[in-house]
Write a structure and sequence with these properties.
The protein is mainly α and 707 residues long. It has 3 domains: 212 residues, Orthogonal Bundle (Arp2/3 complex 21 kDa subunit ARPC3), CATH 1.10.1760; 156 residues, no CATH class; 223 residues, Hypothetical protein af1432 (Orthogonal Bundle), CATH 1.10.3210. The protein has 27 helices and 8 strands. A hairpin with a 2-residue loop joins strand 4 and strand 5. The longest helix has 27 residues.
Length: 707
């Protein structure tokens, strides 16, 4: 048997045309969302020597300030900015006029009640109250609202009165609350003064005056002017700190890329990519198309030669391409945000999701394809790919059982640690000190780990959408309290016990050869559910010495025996079992022959040699390692029950004979099993059967007997 099955030649039909369309569409989408600028031809890192030849400035270009320096200058400008307020003179004028009318009305009412108020004293009180109100408005009463709360005001504001703008300390101004308090204090002083000087009548009159009713803001926030001036000040901040002239030496070969050289090189990179994108965009687009196509071609060839089962399935191929595209699109959107927030994108989720449904090798290759495609979009692509590669490898090896949710938390923690440690190494190499490192990236690394926890619900979504089968679902299906397994244990208890033994054998054999042991175990548990119908016709459910087949025609008996496969498939579909589990029911007898009843039929009808098809299972043959293992375990376990003596020799002979017959019958021709796999499976089956039946291994006789 060959080491691996050679994939068939691809035929020109709709299926493969559709696959070609998926890859082509994905390439077009990635190229379309990629930046239009060219890529700088040199790679460099801070703190490392310049490996290229001496670099001469090809043209004049400005040296840009670091992003954090520009941000600091911007923050300083905003911090010192004085927001603009308009002074409304009409407020003071209107409120003093309202106060005069209010005092006149109050005087008339007071005179009618007491007839004690002195007209000259009233005029004096009126002037004094007007003076208090005027003082408040002259200083200014600030409007406060959600747009400009008092707590967030700077030390100074700019007050605009007509064409004159004047800066005033916020501490010298009133808000309504402080203006109320000021007016109450001044009125209280007037009451005390007039009580002593003018008598009780004026003091009583003043006590009835509600001066706070005439206090309103007269300084209003001017959002339009404030925003315009603020934008002008920000626009005046220079993003450059010098100029490199054409022909000037930028850096020599072997020279260390220090902070100053790094900024010049980054400025040259930016200018180079802008200029290249203007005049040669079609060539840039063609180059990017070739590189993206190369990435997808590598993925296609890998799947063609090593995972053809995935490539040959339309929905599986679409799933792989969709996962890559989702993360590339998210990366492109995140690039528009400032800083290095791209590290917040949980790329390590790709191997988690793919590893859940397939093997680690495919997960790693899909992940490498995704981060290389993202490398065309992000800045510092080498740093990004290196960090992401280490984190992805760590997560693949730390997440072995997705159905154990604690493992996902462990994987998220390991990703955070991997990012943090590797970035620390890169930072120390580039900056040469801890103080100069961008520690804000560790926030993104932590967020990345948190987002990884979304893998669990996403796995469920992909599982239901693409009809996949995850370890978590297999773990649930393998619970013997599942309704269908309970039905089997009640209606066909012997078949249920047989299924449990087959499941144990298949699980160990699958683990030995690196197959999916959980899938093999779950498939084995359900492989005989068709025996819930006519359970008494199967030997493991019969009472000793009685068989209903004794009174049946062999052809009818064979129909019942082989029919349990179809009945099992129908029952599985009725209970909505996944198609991968249904495969075990269909293939556990392959296209084998119900030999006992066929021989019985020939004994009665020696001339009817044309009836073999009526005694043959409909198949198909096993087509995966797991379905082949269950076929072997099923046949071996059932036959082992008929052994008279459970010795190591008898069990070994039985296993060898049954698997040899199945192999010669071509039952494994569609499976990717190797000769070594079959040898290892036979060893496991023999060992497990010896354990089940407690057969004692024969030791060489040394002249003494042991109990």
């Amino acid at each position: 048997m060959a080491e691996s099955r050679r994939p068939p030649e691809i035929k020109t039909n709709k299926k493969y045309l559709y696959h070609l369309f998926l890859f082509a569409a994905s390439i077009i989408i990635v190229v379309a969302i990629s930046p239009r600028e060219g890529k700088f031809r040199y790679e460099f890192q801070k703190g490392k020597p310049w490996l290229g030849s001496s670099l001469i400035a090809p043209w004049d270009f400005p040296v840009q300030k670091p992003y954090n320096v520009v941000a600091a200058e911007r923050d300083s400008t905003l911090k010192n900015f004085s927001p603009y307020y308009k002074l409304s003179a009409d407020v003071e004028k209107n409120k003093i006029s309202e106060l005069d009318k209010y005092l006149n009305d109050l005087l008339i009412k007071y005179e009618a009640e007491t007839r004690e108020l002195d007209p000259m004293g009233f005029a004096s009180v009126k002037r004094e109250l007007n003076s208090i109100l005027s003082d408040i408005y002259q200083k200014g009463v600030l409007e406060t609202n959600e747009m400009m709360p008092y707590e967030k005001l700077p030390d100074e504001i700019t007050v605009v009165s007509g064409r004159v703008a004047e800066k005033k300390k916020v501490s010298s101004l009133f808000v309504q609350k402080s203006a109320y308090q000021y007016s109450a204090e001044k009125k209280s002083e007037l009451e005390k003064h007039h009580k002593v000087v003018s008598g009780k009548s004026l003091s009583d009159f003043l006590s009835k005056v509600a001066l706070y009713d005439f206090i309103e803001p007269n300084l209003f926030y001017d959002a339009a002017t404030s925003t315009a001036v603020k934008n002008q000040l920000i626009g005046e901040i220079s993003v450059n700190r010098g100029l490199v002239q054409e022909g000037e030496l930028i850096i020599s070969q072997g020279e260390i890329v220090d902070d100053a050289k790094y900024m010049i090189l980054e400025s040259l990179r930016s200018e180079y990519e802008k200029r290249l994108g203007k005049n040669d965009k079609w060539f840039i687009l063609l180059g990017r198309f070739i590189l993206v196509t190369a990435c997808y071609l590598a993925l296609y060839l890998f799947m063609y030669h090593f995972r053809f089962d995935v490539l040959s399935s339309t929905h599986k191929t679409f799933f792989i391409i969709l996962v890559i595209l989702i993360f590339i699109i998210i990366t492109r959107l995140v690039i528009f945000l400032p800083g290095t927030i791209v590290y917040l994108v949980p790329f390590a989720m790709i191997p988690i999701i793919v590893r859940t449904f397939y093997d680690s090798r495919l997960a790693l290759f899909v992940y490498l394809t995704a981060i290389m495609l993202a490398g065309f979009i992000v800045t510092n692509s080498f740093e990004f790919i290196f960090l992401s590669f280490i984190a992805g490898v760590i997560v693949i090896f730390s997440l072995t059982n997705v159905y154990r949710r604690a493992k996902l938390f462990t994987a998220a923690l390991m990703v955070f640690i991997a990012y943090s440690v590797v970035y620390l190494g890169i930072g120390l190499m580039q900056e040469g000190s801890l103080a100069a490192m961008n520690w804000k990236n560790y926030i993104w690394f932590a967020g990345n780990g948190v987002f990884l926890l979304l893998s669990y619900p996403l796995i469920f979504v992909f599982e239901k959408t693409f009809r996949f089968l995850s370890d978590a679902t297999l773990f649930e299906l393998a619970d013997t309290n599942q309704l269908l397994l309970r039905k089997l244990s009640e209606d066909a208890p012997g078949s249920f016990q047989h299924s449990l033994q087959v499941a144990n054998l298949a699980e160990e054999a699958a683990r030995e050869i690196g197959a999916n042991n959980l899938l093999a175990r779950t498939g084995a548990l359900y492989h005989d559910i068709g025996k819930t119908f006519n359970a008494e016709y199967f030997v493991e459910n019969q009472a000793e010495g009685f068989s209903p087949h004794d009174h049946l025609d062999p052809l009818k008996s064979a129909e019942i025996i082989t029919g349990h496969v179809k009945k099992g498939v129908d029952l599985a579909r009725k209970f909505n079992l996944p198609s991968q589990i249904v495969d075990f029911i269909q293939t556990h007898h392959g296209t084998g022959l119900a030999y006992f009843f066929y021989k019985k039929f020939l004994d009665k009808n020696p001339n009817r040699t044309d009836m073999e098809k009526s005694f043959t299972y409909t198949g198909p043959k096993p087509f995966s390692k797991e379905t082949a293992i269950v076929m072997m375990a099923d046949a071996v376990e059932a036959s082992s029950r008929s052994l008279a003596n459970y010795s190591e020799e008898n069990i070994g002979e039985l296993v060898e004979r049954i698997i040899y017959i199945q192999e010669q019958d071509g039952q494994y021709s569609d499976t990717p099993l190797t000769f070594k796999d079959i040898t290892d499976i036979k060893s496991v089956l023999i060992k497990r059967l010896l354990n089940i039946y407690h057969a004692r291994i024969a030791y060489p006789d040394r002249g003494t007997s042991r109990g």
